[in-house]
Amino acid sequence: MQFHKYDVLIVGAGGAGMRAAIESGQRARTAVLTKIYPTRSHTGAAQGGMCAALSNVEEDNWEWHTFDTIKGGDYLVDQDAAEIMAKEAIDAVLDLERMGLPFNRTPEGKIDQRRFGGHTREHGTAPVRRACYAADRTGHMILQTLYQNCIKHGVEFFNEFYVLDVNMSTNEDGEEVCTGAVAYELATGEIHVFEAKSVVFATGGFGKVFKTTSNAHTLTGDGMGIVYRKGLPLEDMEFYQFHPTGLAGLGILISEAVRGEGGILRNVDGERFMERYAPTIKDLAPRDIVARSMALEVLEGRGCGSNKDYVLLDVTHLGEEVLESKLPDITAFSRTYLGVDPISEPVPVYPTAHYAMGGIPTNVDGEVLRDNETSVSGLYAAGECACVSVHGSNRLGTNSLLDINVFGRRAGIAAAEYAHSREHVEMPEEPAKLVQGMVDHLRTAHGGERVANIRTALQETMDANASVYRTEDTLKQALSDVQLLKERYGRIAVHDKGMRFNSDLLEAVELGFLLDLAEALVNSALARKESRGGHAREDYGARDDTNFMRHSMSYKQLPDAEDPDAPLGLTGFLADIRLDYKPVSVTRYQPMERKY
């Protein structure tokens, strides 16, 4: 076991983590822990753009952006946070430009901008060009740029260090504070204890809870799961976004930028069906509306293909020059994975699990909340694993890359300033006890269950019962399935007993987090008896502001930590969930009917 000491510890090296590291690294001694190499982080898969009201191509302003974000989130957005994000968006884009990000340019040399779903001018009258982009690989360029700047500022990276626990201690004032984290080094199997004054979680989402997803295999909700197992809440877990245009049957993402450039969704009759669902902005409606519309087309028999289970994305009218210059990766994906050339034929698409609107609750400075109001001293979160609630019940496209830069920056500054104001607090007597117990238990287990079988069953029930549309019956089925799978998880066996690069062990730990988060998602969805944003109930089709204009807060009810029958390191795994609620911050726009 090895020990390290830093001022600020950042867990995760995607866009949010590295944006935080750039700020904290200039103010305090900072280390970044990441279970994969930084430039392989999932931010690199983001394609279409990062929005800001630059007005480079047409008139725009941050107030319109704020309104679009709030309306796009079906009014569950915390409006003070949305206003901060929209205001700071302009500087966030210009910061990246100064760091060297190669944005596409207008003929005048300004950052070019294009349309994106849900982004409008004059509070919804027409689409607006707000998305700043680098072809269709904007996230990749952001990731490379941030990593280069982290190196420039001397940020220390611990690559392939998988954080499995966060340490909490009581200071001399009797306050519970965060004092560091414990990580498993994949290359050696050694456990490392990192003492720190502040810790920032930026570990991304948990899309691998679904079978059909745009998310990489690494997105297993580790940071959310760690915080949740500490008895801290997770916010709005029922809201998961299904991106409308995944390659049919595969889930590989086809960016909304395709529709921003003029792509059209068509059903089996060749009809541009979004004209019926969103007559003003059509194919550029927010993602939840487009995904539901596509699902309805299929359910009502207007799907395409031999099984009538997808629709078509038509870009043949855009021309080869536009596709090859502005959308080269997407064009290649279609050719490679479906054998379809979008220059001459439409592309089969269907919704794919894409983004978690919920996560670790924070305030606008990234401080993690232990309840509706009180923050946890020294603990921060940013990016998809966090929920400052600028996305509400449905995130607008390009607001994710904006979120990681605005709130990653804020969390990095706040964590460094906190570290400067405090001395180190002594860590628990045995800081690695839980992680050591978890690793030893999994490595020595001899049960008859296989991790792959449980993971497959989990993903299948979530796809079937908690996807674009849900009902009381399907959600109860999903909850029953997940709880049964959690019992089976207690009987798994890890067949690789070795220490170095033990992927069997890694996948077993990841599965544990996925099961916890799936249960939280389904439990919260059952309790929300309305349809709002990404949470669409067939049995409660209307939005209900009277009873559900509120955030859900899921707490894991932990059993006695000294329970002799609980597997060491997995204590609390089968705990019950307590559901509470938090009011939505409404400062500017009252909820209205959501029409596009």
TrEMBL record:
Cofactor or coenzyme needed: FAD
Domain Fumarate reductase/succinate dehydrogenase flavoprotein-like C-terminal residues, every copy: 455-596
Binding site residues for substrate: H243, S255, H354, R395
GO biological process, one term: tricarboxylic acid cycle
InterPro entries (alphabetical): FAD-dep_OxRdtase_2_FAD-bd, FAD/NAD-bd_sf, FRD_SDH_FAD_BS, Fum_R/Succ_DH_flav-like_C_sf, Fum_Rdtase/Succ_DH_flav-like_C, SdhA/FrdA/AprA, Succ_DH/fumarate_Rdtase_cat_sf, Succ_DH_flav_su_fwd
Cofactor detail note: Flavinylated by SdhE, about 5% flavinylation occurs in the absence of SdhE.
Compartments reported by the entry: Membrane
Positions annotated as active site in the UniProt record: R287 (proton acceptor)
Annotated catalysed reactions: a quinone + succinate = fumarate + a quinol
Membrane topology term: Peripheral membrane protein
Main location per the UniProt record: membrane
EC number: 1.3.5.1
Keyword tags: Electron transport, FAD, Flavoprotein, Membrane, Oxidoreductase, Transport, Tricarboxylic acid cycle
Pfam families listed in its UniProt record: FAD_binding_2, Succ_DH_flav_C
Sequence ranges assigned to domain FAD-dependent oxidoreductase 2 FAD-binding in this UniProt record: 7-401
Superkingdom of the source species: Bacteria
Tele-8alpha-FAD histidine: modified positions: H42
Name of protein: Succinate dehydrogenase flavoprotein subunit
Lineage: Bacteria, Bacillati, Actinomycetota, Actinomycetes, Pseudonocardiales
